[in-house]
């Protein structure tokens, strides 16, 4: 019998902040998105005082004054490193593991000789907490969808104490389905939940009783697979070997709107450089590049415009100079004066393994490609040792108006030597 466990980090971004700043324990904390925009993670205490997910920071100021809400700028370098540490620990507990997101991991427990899965999962929780400082919850089920559902209940039920095993207790599945609103089922979005509500399908249990033909007609084959999993029929297997990326994007909303071409140009140059580093780390090359910029859609009092340009790359490349040149060329061709731009970005498309690209008359000579690869390897190596951005293309001022706002960001405790925590006597 298939048994899956979903291990989910509790309030992950907040938990990462608390590992290195214990003074945040027991206090209402919210982590903000890029540019200190809106709440993307909330502690249990901040939820209790009414902080909604996605609430803009300026609407939370009254809670700062009234309830001592602490607003933290996001620190994705820290969160990414802490995620790797948690996933490394989890991988030691099962023969198969799928990292589903930065704070979630599926474990395949099929055939694992464990007398009491609940006790064993409590051991997982204790080990992750002891080795990384991050609290986690565990849900178990005969399918990945049921494991996801069990995890949600494990977080919210005091009796579960962080672990709910629906795989070993089939009699618990029906009550769990009845306690889960259909909108909270993994894979059921807001639109599908609305369609279900119109037809009287309010819980996950109601969804399991729906006719297959109606489910397929309303939610397609994907929705039907979700229903099959809720019925205990495994459809989704563990994805332990993720496929290569098809695209990668580097973009940002600016702290301040900018009108000058030079500011957007500098931002696009920076984004193209970072996107190039990403695909080199994955061993891929890009066959096309898309550059975009647009104005603040929420400022109805200002004229609106959206710039977009696609540039083909022949042959495909991962070289920063070529990608920068393509991005700047696309921006220049699409540029329009007289607008206040709020966001820009670069998307690398048609990513492939360079070994799979056939040679043609227009391919660079082998020695030319070798020189380019050596140069990029040297740049990446220096940035790896000296810190991101130590070596780059173009001199970008640190006070550029498009730079990200992060007024209350914690140090990069685990990824920068200069930010190592210091223990005081």
Automatic annotation (TrEMBL):
InterPro entries noted in UniProt: DNA/RNA_pol_sf, DNA_pol_Y-fam_little_finger, DNA_polymerase-Y, DUF4113, Rev_trsase/Diguanyl_cyclase, UmuC
Keyword Membrane: no
Molecular function in Gene Ontology: damaged DNA binding; DNA-directed DNA polymerase activity
Reaction it catalyzes: DNA(n) + a 2'-deoxyribonucleoside 5'-triphosphate = DNA(n+1) + diphosphate
CDD domains: PolY_Pol_V_umuC
PANTHER family assigned: DNA REPAIR POLYMERASE UMUC / TRANSFERASE FAMILY MEMBER, PROTEIN UMUC
Subunit and partners: Monomer.
The protein's name in its UniProt record: DNA-directed DNA polymerase
Organism of provenance: Magnetospirillum fulvum
